[in-house]
């Protein structure tokens, strides 16, 4: 099993069997936008964990799903969070109930729409932040995408059955996003973690809570699972999840120390990048981790919101 230090930038999606009832749709890529998904199928029923960024990518996923079960057997889609690369294919499963946590659903109102992202990517790439967006998202085609919101929410933990398989939905709270969800299959020791886990790339913290990201890693480990499907990158084992947790702790401790000493955020982010980039992809995302630690340390004036985080990341690319 891979630990999160192997970089991959060439998506090669495939549906991989993890147990007799669980599969993972894996891109094995740390690049932006190429998200993994999960499938649980038993006795003529199926649950899909997340869809894809574009309709074309989702159709590719669903073609692979059809090799396991008919599409009309997919009665449930669990959205691990509301980022478009995990939800913008939901419209292709109109028969399915779409479930996420209440916190995740509430965070959806702050998400950029497909049209907005398209317009942004088609704008003249003036300034580092816009250039960063175009570089990472300009090659995706969002034509025809309609963002479909969840149809049901939950809080805490909830068990549902897929055929004979018990599936546990875990509300992880704010961490990567305003509300993250993991899907645990206890009988098979598999967890689909969404972007609570990034394999081979640094975690991005949109929520302003790095402590939430650390806590989510520990909750995932506490399930006792052995195989973890991250939102991006290669499959993880328990050591890989622990490595992500420990990296986040190290960044949080260092950033909190800088905050307490009055080091400006931009300077702290560069120091954090120099010390903690390691070999993982997207070290510029350490800006978001540093900013989250500054927010939790009570520093005034820390930038927040998607565009502020993009500007901060772009500033660390030089």
Q: Could you explain the architecture of this structure?
A:
By secondary structure, this protein is of the alpha/beta class. The chain has one domain: Metallo-beta-lactamase, Chain A (4-Layer Sandwich). Helices cover 34% and strands 22% of the residues. The chain has helices spanning 55-65, 84-87, 102-107, 114-121, 128-137, 210-222, 238-260, 265-276, 286-296, 306-315; strands at 14-17, 22-26, 37-42, 45-49, 74-78, 97-101, 152-154, 157-162, 165-173, 180-185, 190-198, 227-232. The protein has a seven-stranded mixed sheet. Strand 5, helix 2 and strand 6 form a beta-alpha-beta unit. The longest helix is centred in the C-terminal third of the chain and has 23 residues, at 238-260. The chain is globular, with a radius of gyration of 19 Å.
CATH topology: Metallo-beta-lactamase, Chain A
User: Could you give the distance between the termini?
Assistant: 33 Å
Task: Please identify the top-level CATH class.
Answer: Alpha Beta
CATH superfamily: Ribonuclease Z/Hydroxyacylglutathione hydrolase-like
Largest sheet: 7 strands, mixed
**What's the total helix number?**
10
**Order of strands in the sheet with most strands:** 1-2-3-4-5-6-7
Strand residues, percent: 15-25%
The topology string of helices and strands comes to: EEEEHEHEHHHEEEEEHEHHHH
- Helical content class: 25-40%
Question: What overall form do the CA principal axes indicate?
Answer: globular
Uncertain stretches: 2-10
Please give the number of β-strands: 12
Number of domains: 1
Radius of gyration from the alpha-carbon trace, in angstroms = 19 Å
Q: Could you say what the CATH architecture is?
A: 4-Layer Sandwich
Q: What structural class is derived from the secondary structure elements?
A: alpha/beta
Mean pLDDT: 94
């Amino acid at each position: 099993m891979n630990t999160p230090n192997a970089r991959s930038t060439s998506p090669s999606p495939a549906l991989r069997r993890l147990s007799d009832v669980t599969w993972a749709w894996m891109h094995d890529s740390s690049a932006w936008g190429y998200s993994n998904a999960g499938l649980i199928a038993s006795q003529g029923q199926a649950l899909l964990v997340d869809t894809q960024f574009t309709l074309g990518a989702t159709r590719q996923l669903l073609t692979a799903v059809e090799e396991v079960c008919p599409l009309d057997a997919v009665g449930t889609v669990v959205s691990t969070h509301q980022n478009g690369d995990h939800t913008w294919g939901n419209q292709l499963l109109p028969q399915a109930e779409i479930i996420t946590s209440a916190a995740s659903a509430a965070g959806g109102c702050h998400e950029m729409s497909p049209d907005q992202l398209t317009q942004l990517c088609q704008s003249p790439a003036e300034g580092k932040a816009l250039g960063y967006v175009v570089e990472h998202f300009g090659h995706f085609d969002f034509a025809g995408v309609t963002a479909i919101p969840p149809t049901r929410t939950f809080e805490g933990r909830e068990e549902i059955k897929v055929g004979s398989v018990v599936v546990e939905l875990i509300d992880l709270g704010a961490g990567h996003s305003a509300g993250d969800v993991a899907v645990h299959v206890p009988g098979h020791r598999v967890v689909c973690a969404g972007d609570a886990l990034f394999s081979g790339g640094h975690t991005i913290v949109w929520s302003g809570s790095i402590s939430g990201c650390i806590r989510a890693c520990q909750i995932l480990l506490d399930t006792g699972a052995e195989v973890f499907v991250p939102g991006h990158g290669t499959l993880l084992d328990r050591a890989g999840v622990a490595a992500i947790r420990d990296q986040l702790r190290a960044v949080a401790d260092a950033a909190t120390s800088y905050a307490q000493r009055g080091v400006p955020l931009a300077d702290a982010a560069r120091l954090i990048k120099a010390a903690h980039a390691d070999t993982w992809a997207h070290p510029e995302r350490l800006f978001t981790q540093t900013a989250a630690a500054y927010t939790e340390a009570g520093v005034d004036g820390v930038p927040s919101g998607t565009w502020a985080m993009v500007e901060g990341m772009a500033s660390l690319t030089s």
